[in-house]
Amino acid sequence: MAQSKIVLVIIFMFLFFSTPSWGLFEKVATGIRDLHISKNIHLEIESPFPKGCFDSLGLVSRADCFPKNKLFLIITGKKHNFTKIVSRWNDVFVYFVQLTPGGYFADLDIDGNLEFAIYPMVAGNNTITNAYIYSIVGNKIKYYGIGRFNSERGNCVTDIVKGKSIRPAP
């Protein structure tokens, strides 16, 4: 009888602490949250959890504990809030990923505006999914297009298509 209880507890713990929880903290190849473009311009992603999500052991204690993403463009010390862009991914972490080999930003279409890529983390094995590309136009962030990114081994975004979107871009 005691042995079956132990087995049930082990099964419960395995199911409770399985892939969905681990996926929140899985490493993303080239993923960063603070992107310094120049001395005066940088981008920042914040992904805080709601209050009361962790117990004293640091474990998620509520079912609704997912990061609430925020995106900021900081120009010469002034912080511009673009949270609306990343708020649709409030159930996963969001990262900046390399847009080109070795670079997190580039002027892809030679129009004078720098582009960068945002990748919403998708848990799984060797996942290749969409990265969303945006342009910095003055003190605004505008949608540019979409590309593909491998979260585990991706060096940079590939197959970039300007203007393409699989969902409405804010």
Task: Give me some keywords for this one.
170 residues; alpha+beta; 6-stranded antiparallel β-sheet; globular
What's the short version?
Helix content is 14%, strand content 34%. It is α+β, with helices and mostly antiparallel strands and 170 residues long. It has a domain at 2-36 and 84-162.
Residue-averaged pLDDT:
80
Rg to the nearest angstrom? Answer: 19 Å
The largest sheet, given as strand count, sense and whether it forms a barrel, is:
6 strands, antiparallel
First and last CA, distance? 57 Å
Helix content: 10-25%
What is the count of helical runs?
A: 3
Strand content: 25-35%
What would the principal axes of the Cα set say about the shape?
globular
H-E order: HHEEEEHEEEEEE
Low-confidence parts lasting 5 or more residues at pLDDT below 50?
Answer: 14-24
Number of strands: 10
Structural class: alpha+beta
Could you characterize what this model shows?
The chain has helices at 2-16, 19-23, 83-86, and strands spanning 34-36, 41-46, 70-75, 78-81, 94-97, 105-106, 114-120, 128-137, 140-150, 158-162. The protein has 170 residues and is of the alpha+beta class. The protein has a domain at 2-36 and 84-162. The strands form 2 sheets. Strands 5, 6, 7, 8, 9 and 10 form a 6-stranded antiparallel beta sheet that branches. A 4-stranded antiparallel beta sheet has the order 1-2-3-4. It is globular, with a radius of gyration of 19 Å.
